[in-house]
Design goal:
The complex is a heterodimer of chains A (about 575) and B (about 190). Chain A is α+β, with helices and mostly antiparallel strands and about 575 residues long. Chain A has four domains: about 5-45, no CATH class; about 115-275, bacillus anthracis domain (Immunoglobulin-like, Sandwich), CATH 2.60.40.1630; about 280-435 and about 565-575, Immunoglobulin-like (Sandwich); about 435-560, Immunoglobulin-like (Sandwich). Chain A has helices at about 5-15, 20-30, 35-45, 60-70, 75-85, 95-105, 135, 140-150, 275-280, 320-335, 350-360, 445-450; strands at about 50, 155-160, 165-175, 180-185, 200-210, 220-225, 230-235, 250-260, 260-275, 280-290, 295-305, 310-320, 360-370, 375-380, 395-405, 410-415, 425-445, 455, 460-470, 475-480, 480-485, 485-495, 500-510, 515-520, 530, 535-545, 550-565, 570-575. In chain A, helix 2 (about 20-30) crosses helix 3 (about 35-45). The longest helix of chain A has 14 residues, at about 320-335. Chain B has two domains: about 5-85, Orthogonal Bundle (Rna Polymerase Sigma Factor, Chain: A); about 100-175, Arc Repressor Mutant, subunit A (Orthogonal Bundle), CATH 1.10.10. In chain B, strands 1-2 form a two-stranded antiparallel sheet. Chain B is globular. Chain B is built from ten helices and two strands. The chains are: A alpha+beta (about 575), B mainly alpha (about 190). Chains A and B meet through helix 1, helix 2, helix 3, strand 1 and helix 4 of A and helix 2, helix 3, helix 5, strand 1 and helix 7 of B. Strand 1 (about 50) of chain A pairs parallel with strand 1 (about 115-120) of chain B, so a sheet runs across the interface. Chain B: Pfam families: Sigma70_r2, Sigma70_r4_2. Chain B: Belongs to the sigma-70 factor family. ECF subfamily. Chain B: Keywords: DNA-binding, Sigma factor, Transcription, Transcription regulation. Chain B: One of its GO terms (biological process) is DNA-templated transcription initiation.
Chain lengths: ~575, ~190
């Protein structure tokens, strides 16, 4: 018998149904023999399709690269056995597992050896460790020093040598907010190799006792110079959102494949006992919420204090009203221009760029003691000196992530531990929101080279002083400003409108209508406030790709960061009863 | 040549080299599939690597009643769709593809015979769900049943989606008749 829904099948096949209805039709056909026979009739007419287009080749080393990565993974069958045991709620026999690994390693083909260590576990002790590199090297942050002083740092001394270069893991610092390792690298003559960015290659892994990869994306490891050493650290808050979720044992595996430009293989696993640091972690739940006059909702979740830091967790989003206004603006300006079709180039549309700017927002706040004295402060504007409230902030363990359509953000900010205080106060200082700006200045360059030109527009005052043409590709310092590549440089001084602390989205257009991308120099950017509180600074613009001096240039910026101080929110925090 | 299950058995016994043999055997196919899905060679390369790593971790779950290539495509398809969803980004056509201008050479006409041809970059214009199904069917030559297993959807849904994707593609197709003059409808 004919099915009443077969018309819907036709509509489906002509792609005339909305997505949700399509799914219903798919489900119906699965069970309806009439529709199935209709489908057979129509479907039988389909012709083969041949897809044209060459596939670019894979690099020769592809298989080898995969093999290298596999060397750090737990043996798959074993992991499965353990998974099953966990599923069956049976304790895992670790002794047996090590035996299995040994047996298996013995028959492993050379070159693909599983990275298995039988070394002693690094376990932080309470012994005072004043000589720790985490305490003595200048670059150490307050939290590291504190952790070292309290004994949450351990000497390791594990070494691995290849191509004449020896890598030694000197010390490890670990607690629920971070893991940091200090590496020393020496050449065959025992000469210490100083860290130079870009001359290293390799990977770091974080696994639990069962060999499970806890950071499968492999990201979030910071590499940097640390005195004569190299410091590698990872913020743990983005892997575990509470101290309890941190496993009692973690293993950091490293595999360098390039050191100071020399290719080779330096691999080691460092198992770390997290138990003690977890035990002393204290989390104070706060859960207070505030909505600013601008419609920014801020929720202060909690503060976790561990040996190397106090970590403040916040959540923010925009309220409905603010979101509505934002979308109204986007529609009005025609910035809702994301392409329906696939992009020809991986480039955002002008509207998408504006959306990106307009949805980023930031905070500034202070942590005060009982007498109202600032013991810590966090300020996320570009030029922190403008407010001078940033204090004891540990940026290496601060991070954030966003999701959803209402500009929801989750933030965690690290500070030198708030120890020795019973009561503190969280005080919101500012909210920074980006807004569209329409500054424009038309400058005749011949005039400019004779005398400075002052332009007042959109509440800003700009005095452009000099124009230079940079005709070389290499990095060069012109008029006190360093830049790379060919282009034009314009020096200027500016006073921004009231409450505006930063401007961006610069463009330049010449008399022929050619548009150039422009960047503002930040290196020496000294931002100060004038008597009226307005922000003043001196800097230079680099007009990328300008090869000869045009007659005139129209300089513009499209985004300004507005600092809102009309926020009034204080939250008392009881640390220790 | 050893069967896949034999290689897997060797791996189970601790010979990791056996897995590199699997990588060698399938890397081209998986990469080509991901490249056609995502339209960018570096991204496709990275995804291919991730697929082989994922497959390695999950290899204990493989059951021989599934064709190994279909099992691998299941991981590749899911990983790629997840990635596209995560990035909320449409596949990009880069310079690599834009340079591919096809001429109707006699060889190509002969090859094409009764088929419909479509340029890769046009395929990229389809929705992810449509593209994946057409690639699995016409490039990888998987059966409807296998596609159903790969994508965890009923066979009837596979048929329906293939038909609909076909229809969507039609406007981009170059119909070719065996040996006859080539008519380019819309490219």
């Amino acid at each position: 018998m004919r099915c009443v829904k077969s018309n819907q099948l036709k509509a489906y096949l002509s792609d005339d149904l909305p997505h949700s209805e399509s799914l219903l039709v798919e489900r119906h056909v699965e069970e309806c023999s009439y529709c199935q026979s209709e489908l057979e009739k129509i479907g039988g007419e389909l012709r083969e399709i041949r897809v044209l287009g060459d596939i670019p080749p894979l690099p020769d080393a592809f298989t080898e690269e995969v093999a290298n990565k596999l060397a750090h993974l737990p043996f798959p069958f074993q992991a499965q056995d353990e998974r099953m045991q966990v599923a069956l709620n049976k304790p895992i026999n670790w002794k047996k597992r090590s035996m299995d690994i040994m047996k298996k390693t013995a028959i492993t083909v050379a070159g693909l050896a599983a990275a298995v260590t039988f070394g002693t576990m690094v376990s932080p002790t309470f012994a005072n460790y004043v000589n720790s590199l985490f305490n003595t090297v200048n670059q150490a942050d307050g939290g590291m020093k504190n952790a070292a002083a309290e004994g949450y740092v351990q000497e390791v001394g594990k070494k691995v040598t290849d191509k004449g270069i020896t890598v030694t893991v000197k010390e490890v610092l670990a607690d629920p907010t971070r893991i940091a390792l200090i590496f020393e690298m020496v050449d065959k003559d025992g000469k210490k190799l100083d860290f130079k960015a870009g001359e290293y290659g390799g990977e770091f892994t974080l696994t639990d006792k069962a060999g499970k990869d806890l950071n499968p994306e492999g990201d979030g490891w910071r590499w940097g110079k640390y005195g004569d050493y190299m410091l590698i650290s990872k913020n743990l808050r983005d892997v575990f959102d509470s101290a309890e979720k941190v496993p009692d044992e973690l293993t950091v595996g490293f595999a360098f494949n390039k050191i100071r430009g020399t290719e080779g293989s330096w691999k080691l696993d460092i198992p770390i006992d997290m138990k003690k640091a977890k035990e002393v972690a204290k989390t104070i739940e706060i859960n207070q919420e505030y909505t600013s006059p601008q419609g920014v909702v801020i929720k202060l979740d909690n503060i976790m204090t561990v040996p190397s830091a106090s970590l403040l967790s916040l959540e923010t989003h925009w309220n409905e009203q603010r979101n509505k206004e934002y979308w109204k603006l986007i529609e009005e300006k025609g910035w809702n221009d994301a392409p329906e079709e696939p992009r020809k180039e991986m480039r955002l549309t002008p509207g998408e760029i504006m959306q990106d700017f307009l949805t980023s927002y930031n905070l500034a706040y202070e942590i005060l003691d009982e007498k109202g004295k600032r013991i810590a402060g966090r300020d996320d504007t570009f030029f922190k000196t403008l407010n001078g409230i940033e204090k004891n902030s540990v940026h290496s363990i601060s991070s954030g992530r966003g999701e959803g359509d209402s500009q929801t953000m989750e933030w965690w900010h690290g500070f030198t531990p708030f120890t020795g205080y019973e009561k503190l106060t969280f005080k919101l200082h500012s909210i920074y929101l980006n807004e569209p700006a329409s500054f424009e200045a038309k400058i005749a360059l011949d005039e400019l080279n004779k005398q400075p030109v002052t332009v007042e527009n959109s509440g800003s005052t700009f005095t452009f002083s000099k124009f230079h043409l940079k005709t070389t590709e290499a990095e060069e310092k012109i008029g006190g400003y360093k830049s790379e590549g060919k282009g034009g440089i314009i020096e200027f001084e500016a006073t921004l409108p009231k409450d505006i602390v930063y401007i961006t989205d610069w463009k330049a257009k010449d008399e022929a209508g050619n548009v150039y991308s422009v960047s503002m120099d930040h290196s020496d950017g000294e931002y100060i406030r004038g008597k009226d509180g307005r922000v003043q600074f001196k800097s230079a613009l680099f007009i990328d790709g300008l090869e000869k001096q045009p007659k005139e240039l129209t300089i513009s910026y499209g985004i300004q960061e507005h600092q809102y101080r009309d926020v009034n929110w204080e939250v008392p925090i009881q640390l220790d009863k | 040549m050893q069967e896949e299950w034999e290689l897997i058995e060797q791996l189970r016994r601790g010979n990791k080299q056996a897995y590199t043999e699997i990588v060698e055997r399938y890397k081209g196919k998986i990469y080509a599939f991901l490249y056609r899905m995502i339209g960018h060679s570096q991204d496709a390369q990275d995804l291919t690597q991730e697929v082989f790593i994922k497959a390695y971790c999950k290899i204990g779950d493989y059951r021989p009643d599934f064709r190994f290539s279909a099992w691998l495509f299941r991981i590749a398809a899911n990983h790629c769709l997840d990635e596209l969803r995560k990035r909320k980004r449409l596949p990009a056509t880069t310079a690599e593809e834009s340079e591919l201008v096809h001429e109707n050479t006699p060889e190509r006409i002969l090859l094409a015979k009764e088929q419909h041809e479509v340029l890769h970059e046009k395929l990229l214009a389809l929705e992810d769900d449509h593209r994946v199904i057409l690639l699995l069917r016409y490039v990888e030559q998987l059966s409807y049943k296998e596609i159903a297993e790969v994508l965890s959807i009923p066979v009837t849904t596979v048929q329906m989606r293939i038909f609909r994707a076909h229809k969507k593609l039609r406007q981009y197709m170059i119909p070719v008749k065996g040996g006859g003059p080539v008519e380019v409808r819309e490219v």
